[in-house]
Sequence to fold (69 residues):
Amino acid sequence: MPRLIFDEDKCKGCRLCTTVCPKKIVVMAEDRINAKGFHPATVKNQEECIGCKFCATMCPDCVIKIVKD
Fold:
């Protein structure tokens, strides 16, 4: 099962990753602020990830990694 890992402190909140997720599970964490002062990207419903890597490819700051167990 693929697993998304976010380096949340590097996220600048551009939301590009949220626009390409076919499952719509990459969202902005509205409940917290990262070290840069932005709401970071995160994943809701990790188990729904299909490992397409669209979010990681779209991220200009290489914040997202996909790990396949």
